[in-house]
Amino acid sequence: MENVIMVEDISKSFKGVNVLKHVNISFEKGKIHGIIGRNGSGKTVLIKTICGLVQPDEGRVLVDGKQIGKDVDFPESIGVIIEAPGFLPTLSAYKNLEYLASLRGVIGKKEIRNAITTVGLDPDDKKHVGKYSLGMKQRLGIAQAIMENPDILILDEPMNALDKNGVAEIRELLLRLKEEGKTILIVSHNSEDIHMLCDTVHEMDGGILS
If we measure between CA atoms, which residue out of 153, 7, 148, 151 comes closest to residue 80? Predict the structure, then answer.
C-alpha cells in the first residue's frame, strides 16, 4: 500500500526544549492510524508539523509526495481538528461552516448541510455556537473537518467532551470514512478509542515516537 504521509527525521525545539526528537514515521493510505501519549509528549506538535502549521528544525514531511513548507505550504486534501475547534460564537453552526467554506470555495450549501447532519447536529438550528455545549462544539469541529470531503483527516482528541452516544456515533463515522478510502490519523490519550479504531498504533513519549 502507498504511504500517503511520510515524516523523515523530524526534530523541533521551543526555547531550548526538545519537543520532537528525530521522529520517523509513515502512514499508509486508507487506514486509521493512532498516536497515543500523555499531554506534553509532543503529539500535537507532530501533527501541527504534518499540517504545515509548525516548521521543523530538522527533517521533512511529505504528504502525497509533496514536501510541506517547500513544494506546498499546507497539505492539499486534508481535514483537521487540532485542540479545541474555534468558531465565531455569535453565528449558527451553518453560518460558521458557510463562512469557512467560502475561504476555499470548493463546496456549496448541500455539502455543508450534509456535514452538519452527519455529525448529529441540525443545519437549520439558529442557535449561536457560543451557546453550544463542549460536545456540540466538538461535533461541529468534526463537521468542519469532513465537509470538503478531504482524502486525509487528522483529528486531535476527536472524542473530547462527547457523551457515550456521541463517542459511538463518531467511531461509526470514522470507520465508514475509512471504508470510503480515507486516511485518518487520530491523536488521543484515550487508549480505548485508539485500540478500537486503529489499524496501526504508535506511542509518543518525551518527543520520541515508537
Answer: 153
* pLDDT, tens only, 44-56: 999 999 999 999 9
- Residue-wise over 142-177: b if at least 16 C-beta within 10 A, else e? bbbbbbbebbbbbbbbbbbebeeebbebbbebbeeb
pTM: 0.93
Residues 109, 98: Cα–Cα separation, whole Å:
7
- Cα dist. 206→41, 56, 133, 192, 193 in Å? 5, 16, 33, 22, 22
Paired residues of 80 in beta bridges: 154
**Residue written as cell 461552516?**
97
Rounded CA-CA distance 174/180 in Å is: 10
Radius of gyration of the chain (CA): 17
Smallest CA-to-CA distance from 14 within 51, 72, 55, 47 is with: 55
Cell numbers found for residue 136: 456540540
